[in-house]
Write a structure and sequence with these properties.
Two copies of one chain form a homodimer. Chain A is α/β, with parallel strands linked by helices. In chain A, the strands form three sheets. In chain A, strands 1-6-5-2-3-4 form a six-stranded mixed sheet, with helices on both faces. The longest helix of chain A has 17 residues. Chain A is elongated and about 85 Å long. Chains A and B meet through helix 4, helix 7, helix 8 and helix 10 of A and helix 4, helix 7, helix 8 and helix 10 of B.
Chain lengths: 408, 408
């Protein structure tokens, strides 16, 4: 038995940018409740980018809301479109993947998604099931429903057309094929980011023409990445991955600009209601402390309490107390026979802090190297035997055990 | 053995608007001659419009030139595109035909085409052979070679896009599919009217990408129709059909405006060189006489000498000597018992010159009716018994034998 429609709507509305059209969602929920039949809720994912991050999680948690309300979630892998390259919202064509690469990427999805969705209630489908068998006559039937002008209404197409930058005809095909996914799945609701709004709405025409009730489009906010500038994406390396190691997850979260705190607290943290208000208030007064809370919250969410505690303590040691981490690697080297010392450039390469002596020279020139906490910029420095803490940047440490020349 | 390239080029160039690029045609002819291998020359025809007219004949005669020079002509029926509607160069979508309708239309083509082309040297192909089996991945491979901006370069697309009148996405597909025809046939040369220039050139990209040498595009002039205004087309009813009856062919040719004479003499008549110059000169001095020569020439070309003579004599009787044609129908009627006469409106309907008395009244009011050569506009005219020649418009005649009332 489904919850009353008002209760469902209250949960489902939370955190969305827009529900188009909302009255149709109400009507669908009412009929679902009367007929005791779950809605089919679809979201498409790109198998060329199998690293899910906390930006994806915004809508994955919304899919979980649907699951908890008893509805049927379809996690749709756009494997067919990936085989031919999906340039949606990108000015460059994405790489075309082989069947083997896609299959490998799919395996990694499952582990990530199950950190949020209930595996037993999640149906995973691949759009090659219904797109691969389409023939030219089918394709012409689909394309005949759309006009060139309508396709050019999509913001990024309009922009690129105005700029005179090329749009491949295949790119025009992609949103129509995505619409056909909705027909094949008979989806009631589709989720997508604000950059997917056009594609989501396009499916409605095709569903209506196929005698189906058109889907409701649930537009979800896009989380900005750690740079505070562009949307979170692996290709910009401004992301926090769902399966990232606790220390990395913690460190990346701590690196975000203060202006991003409100957005991340609202969209990516577990905070709700009173807790959220408290953190939002604190963000203005003590952004560093709020970031620590957020970083801990994220590690707790995607790992566990113990991992969150460890990541926080390790971070604090390095960044707050400026101590050397406990688990620092020790590197044993021997001084040069002639001089009885060892050149710093050689130390950096042998300890793997630099890949070459020219990189070592560059690091030294940039002031990125510290020996026992003191910055070293002298590229000719010779170290006498003894033990040292060699540090590169903020987080890479090596304990150096430099032994006398000729010793055993 | 093929004729020297210069000789071939002289024949092939004649009457074309443009050969793009001409140096590639020269190179292809040279290699064809060296290898003793014929060129593959393709032209597409629309099976939804199976009535060929003297406008089509302009390029059919060019195909015959290729045949006579020893090359291989492919008469390509766009049956697949017809099944899904081919809107090329039309602001309205064409009707979608069933397989049965297309098959029926194909039969009528053969008879018409063989008035010009050598049946033994003409290969008839249907593009459903290679287009029907294409799947979505194939289609995306083709579309990825073209940009939206390039498709919008086509004049009619550009115009409609600028006017805000809708262009179906399926219309954008059509020229790309036509290009694929060239790949499937490995065509060396494609012929088409000036309105096909864009489509013909588009095929070159696809051929190159498929590892073929791109085709040479031979752009042929479009013949204007009998209205002197629009291009010749059955849908405008401004055409002279290849299999039209001699009298109709002659009459339609006589109806063209004087300004069209130069174009028709050059493109549609059999006149060449000295004869052509003579007729072109005469057109300015005595256009009516020149039209008679042209009309006779066309009937001779598509029927025979005897038919041309008969059509000319019949036309002359009606239009020049204003005589009643020999084979006029006789209609026997009886006068009204009360008046001893018969109302002209009744005469016109009973003799099938009008379908109703209201049409008869309209014809009379328009001055379209003559009795014994005198125009009759009196809608109440009563005819006394006797014989009359009743004439509607310029060419419809009935001999009326009006007998006395009550007689046997």
């Amino acid at each position: 038995m489904f919850a009353p429609v008002d209760e469902q709507l209250e949960v489902l509305r939370r955190g969305t940018v827009e529900i188009v059209p909302e009255d149709e969602l109400t009507a669908k929920l009412e009929r679902s409740r009367q007929a005791d039949r779950p809605l089919v809720v679809k979201q498409g994912f790109d198998p060329t980018r199998p690293d899910l991050h906390i930006g994806h999680a915004v809508s994955l948690y919304k899919l979980r809301d649907f699951q908890r309300l008893g509805h049927r979630v379809v996690f749709l892998i756009g494997d067919f479109t990936a085989r031919v390259g999906d340039p949606s919202g990108q000015s460059e064509m994405r790489p075309v993947l082989t069947e083997e690469e896609i299959a490998a990427n799919l395996l990694t999805y499952k582990e990530q998604v199950e950190r949020i969705l209930d595996p037993k209630l999640t149906e995973v489908r691949r759009n090659s099931e219904w797109l691969a068998p389409l023939n030219l006559a089918d394709v012409l039937g689909i394309t005949s429903l759309y006009t060139v002008a309508r396709m050019l209404e999509r913001d990024d197409f309009a922009q690129r057309h105005a700029d005179g930058s090329p749009i491949s005809m295949a790119e025009f095909m992609y949103p129509m094929m995505q619409g056909y996914d909705s027909v094949a799945l008979e989806s009631d609701v589709e989720l997508g980011g604000t950059d997917q709004r056009f594609n989501l709405l396009l499916a409605r025409t095709l569903q209506e023409r196929s005698g189906q009730e058109p889907q409701v489009c649930m537009i979800m906010p896009l989380l900005r990445g750690t740079d505070g500038d562009r949307k979170m994406s692996k290709s910009y390396d401004n992301y926090v991955g769902l399966t990232m190691e606790p220390d990395e997850m913690f460190g990346r979260t701590m690196s975000i600009p203060d202006e991003l705190l409100e957005e991340w607290l609202s969209l990516a943290s577990s905070a709700r209601d009173a807790e959220l208000n408290k953190q939002l208030r604190q963000a203005g007064e003590n952004p560093l402390e709020t970031k620590r809370w957020l970083a801990e919250d994220l590690v707790r969410r995607y790992h566990d309490d113990a991992a969150a505690d460890r990541a926080r303590d390790a971070f604090d040691r390095v960044h707050r107390e400026r101590e050397v981490p406990e688990d620092v690697t020790t590197c044993v080297l021997r001084a040069d026979d002639d001089t009885g010392t060892l050149w710093i450039g050689y130390v950096l390469t042998r300890s793997d802090l630099a890949s070459s002596t020219s990189e070592a020279a560059r690091l030294l020139a940039q002031g990125a190297v510290r020996v026992d906490r003191r910055p070293v910029t002298d590229g000719d420095l010779q170290l006498a035997p003894g033990t040292y803490i060699i540090q590169k940047g903020k987080r890479a440490f090596v304990r150096l055990d430099l032994r006398s020349a000729g010793g055993s």
